[in-house]
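Notes for week 9. Today we move from apo structures to complexes. The key idea is that a small molecule is not decoration. When we ask for a structure prediction with flavin-adenine dinucleotide present, the ligand SMILES becomes part of the input, just like the chain. The input block below holds both the sequence and the ligand string. Read it once before you look at the output, and try to guess where the molecule might sit.
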Amino acid sequence: MASRCSALLLKHGLSLRCPLSSSLHRNPHPPFRTFWRSFIAAASPNFANENREYVIVGGGNSAGYAARTFVEHGQANGKLCIVSKEAYAPYERPALTKGYLNSLDTNPSRLPGFHTCVGSCWERQTPDWYNEKGIEMLYEDPVTGIDIEKQTLTTNSGKLLKYGTLIIATGCTSSSLPEKVGGHLPGVHYIRDVADANSLISSLEKAKKVVVVGGGYIGMEVAAAAIGWKLDTTVVFPDNHLLPRLFTSSLARKYEQLYEENGVKFVKGSSIQHIESGPDGRVAGVKLGDQSFIEADLVIVGIGAKPAVSPFESVGLSNTVGGIQVDGQFRTKIRGILAIGDVAAFPLKIYNRISRVEHVDHARKSAQHCVKALLTAQTDTYDYLPYFYSRVFEYEGSPRKLWWQFYGDNVGETVEVGNFDPKIATFWIDSGTLKILKYHYVN
Ligand SMILES: Cc1cc2nc3c(=O)[nH]c(=O)nc-3n(C[C@H](O)[C@H](O)[C@H](O)COP(=O)(O)OP(=O)(O)OC[C@H]3O[C@@H](n4cnc5c(N)ncnc54)[C@H](O)[C@@H]3O)c2cc1C
């Protein structure tokens, strides 16, 4: 035990920076630990967290999988603290634009049904689970600052937290339209968390005409959901076809046809010039670049996301690809600070580049890899094949439920197999070599 702990200390530079810390790690005897906790409490009465050895900032998808991995290695109880901006224990975020948005008469998903790690068919980690495992949860109090010398964090409410090892798991925030174009009018929605989804549902209940801004996967999932609510739905996007970063034009055309058969209208090659309000101050419609006007009492914006790095910018952890730069074990350049999930800019070995991946499979796997590397002698670097999926029109009564998956990267020439009736696959072939760069399957 002693040598394993010392090796880990050396590997990750973990320490609570106290004269007694090395003895602490060498002696796991309970009475000593009790003494140590009282010592910390007495010496530093201002720290608001009891569990200080490992602190995760962010209580989302990757935090839930990280917590599970800490528990698997017997390192959670009394040691792990999760600090979250949200009011809920970690959950499987993709549900928010799928089952969660089902109309109220078609059995919508709700918490606690989709807490992590149900997305991997593992145990559902409800708030009670965290309690039972001795994991300290601090809710609704985002971290706003860090002092890497003192190994402390400050929170929005003014709390001071101590960490030995810090894992940054803050994910992304939705990109928004500027206030001056009406991007924050009542009736304009973005969707990133349960609070956003609840607010959107209360607007869906009253809405008649919906404009979705953005033809990416979030836009297409909410457009499908709006059809489930039987709403007049128009999707506006600047490109020639939907999902331009992922789909070929041939694939997109077939996908668009399915949406059109379900009643969705598309306005392509167009962007929003202004979101107009009515006499009640709520959204009344959108004015497009060509000055045409689409009436709407609900606008849902899905124009991408930005990594949530702001509390850590002051310590120089950001990368040119926008996130927090880490190595193949999710370690940043600062000893004892790691980053996982959407926010991490990591070496994507298979394509030999630094990447961020904003998808749930990576959130889960990066969390597990990071925590295993932290707590064990594992030295493998993360070797990841990007994987991403979407599911639409899944509600009861939908004429056709649809599910697709991507693996890899979309580089090179494409070969399409199948005709979308009922299935289709697209392969990307790069420099004459068949790698499975991307596989697309529609059911
Ligand atoms: C609506 C929606 C649908 C999606 N659907 C799919 C899908 O179908 N397929 C797919 O592959 N991926 C999907 N994704 C992407 C996937 O959910 C993310 O990749 C995944 O959630 C990333 O996990 P994470 O832990 O990095 O970030 P998140 O799950 O976003 O968690 C980050 C957490 O950190 C909190 N936080 C942020 N800043 C702070 C701070 N300063 N202090 C404390 N807490 C903070 C946030 O509030 C949040 O709770 C979807 C994402 C969204 C938003």
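The longest strand covers residues 272-277.
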